[in-house]
Amino acid sequence: MPNRVAWLALRELHQSHPAALYCHSLFLLFLRVQLLTIALYYYYSNYMEKLPAQKVNGLIDGIAVLQELAVSPAPCSGKAIAERLGLNTVRVNRLLKTLAFLGLTYRTASRKYSIGPGMHVLAAQSMAASGLLNRALPYLVKLYQLNKTVALGVLWKNQVCYLYHNSSLQNEADTANFAAGLGRMTLYPATKSSIGQVLLSRLNPEQLSFTLGETPDDDILKTLRKVRKQGYASVKHGDHTSLAFAVGQPPYAAMAVSGIKGKGEENKFIKLLKEYTNKLTNS
Asked: How would DSSP label each residue in the chain?
């Protein structure tokens, strides 16, 4: 009952005073990535079960619609979402109305839809169950203060979703600028990312093909075999290198440092990342 009351209160606040919620955008973004963290934790804990014989298509499509809204920078019409997902427009509109009834979306004056307060409530509730970002922050701060780009991310299909991504090379390494890395970057191709590579390397061939949406080519397989053997990913970006180590057993996230130049720096950050990710895994 208390959860229901909080949900309805937030929904009423959002409808009557939308700006009251958006003025805390950074905090809400933090909550939203916490929701994604716990969702992906359970996703990997029971990693990619086979599709059930009696799957609930409405649930699958509803989550797809909600995900599409979550990554959209502006409210969307049902028609636009249907076109992006390849779904029937009438079906998408019904799903959007149902999600709006639940408070997970809301309808704007222009008859478009955006994420509703229910998503923020779920995110806040999930914080008690997933402490990944909270536990990782002390280590991210230490790496950030060494004047490098630091990141914490998870796999989402064939992309990396960054819970944190920030560069102290572009800012003074202070706490205020550090906070700007929360939700600063969203999705990036997994095969081009050190975080993506180290997480992909732990998958078996069937899981890998499912995640990438296709059979990986020989170059990708060779790279992932090397990553798995050495225990971390190393990706060249121009004149610098990005390193990433996995977090969790089995892995469900990874921490990375980029902007590394020279073998000496590389060995230094390999040691630090290994130490920090081991502590995170065991905490």
From this structure: -HHHHHHHHHHHHHHH-HHHHHTTHHHHHHHHHHHHHHHHHHHHHTTTPPPPTT--HHHHHHHHHHHHHHT-SS-B-HHHHHHHHT--HHHHHHHHHHHHHTTSEEE-TTS-EEE-HHHHHHHHHHTTT--HHHHHHHHHHHHHTTSSEEEEEEEETTEEEEEEEEETTSS-SSHHHHHTTBTS--EEEGGGSHHHHHHHTTS-HHHHHHHHTSPPPHHHHHHHHHHHHHTSEEEEETTEEEEEEEETTTT-EEEEEEEE-HHHHHHHHHHHHHHHHHHHHH-
Q: What is the pTM of this model?
A: 0.69
Angle between helices 117-126 and 25-45 (to 10 degrees): 60
What is the C-alpha to C-alpha distance for residues 226 and 245, in angstroms, rounded to an integer?
14
**Please, which pLDDT band fits residue 52 given cuts at 50, 70 and 90?**
low
pLDDT tens readout for residues 30-49: 445 444 544 444 444 444 45
pLDDT of residue 22: 41
* E strand intervals along the chain: 105-107, 113-115, 149-156, 159-167, 187-189, 233-237, 240-247, 253-260
d(CA 33, CA 123): 8
Residue 52 CA, chain-centre distance (Å), reads 25
Q: DSSP code of 69? A: H
> Distance between CA 122 and CA 189 in Å, rounded?
27
Yes or no: say if 139 and 276 are a contact pair by the CB < 8 Å rule: yes
